[in-house]
Specification:
With 103 residues, the chain is an alpha+beta fold. It contains two helices and four strands; from the N terminus they run H-E-E-E-H-E. It has one domain: 2-Layer Sandwich (Nucleotidyltransferase, domain 5). The longest helix has 18 residues. It comes from Liquidambar formosana. InterPro entries: RNase_H-like (IPR053151), RNase_H-like_dom_plant (IPR044730), RNaseH-like_sf (IPR012337), RNaseH_domain (IPR002156), RNaseH_sf (IPR036397).
Length: 103
Amino acid sequence: MSRTKEWVSSSRLAKERLVKSVRYIAWSFPPPAWVKLNTDGSSRGNPGESAGGGLLRDDVGNWIVGFGVNIGVCSVFGAEFWALFHGLKIAWEERVRKVIVAF
C-alpha cells in the first residue's frame, strides 16, 4: 500500500509541474496593402524525403493562393528553406511585391 501512495503522490507532483503557463498563439494580419506568406517544410528523417507548402493571404485574411511541393531528399532546414523559396517565387509570379514572411 505504501508504494501505491508513493506513486500517487509522485504522479500528482509530476502533473502539477507540467503546465507553468498557457500562451495563445494566433495568426496576425499584415499591414494594409501587404500580403503574408506562411510556409512550412518537413522531412521524414534528417535527411529524408521532404515536402513543403504554404499560403499567401491578404491584409484582411483572404486566401490568395496556396501550394504544396515535393522537395525530394534533404534536411529539415532544407525543407523549410525550399518551402520559403517556392512561396516567394509564387508571390512574385502573382505580382505580389509587399510580402511579410511568417514561419
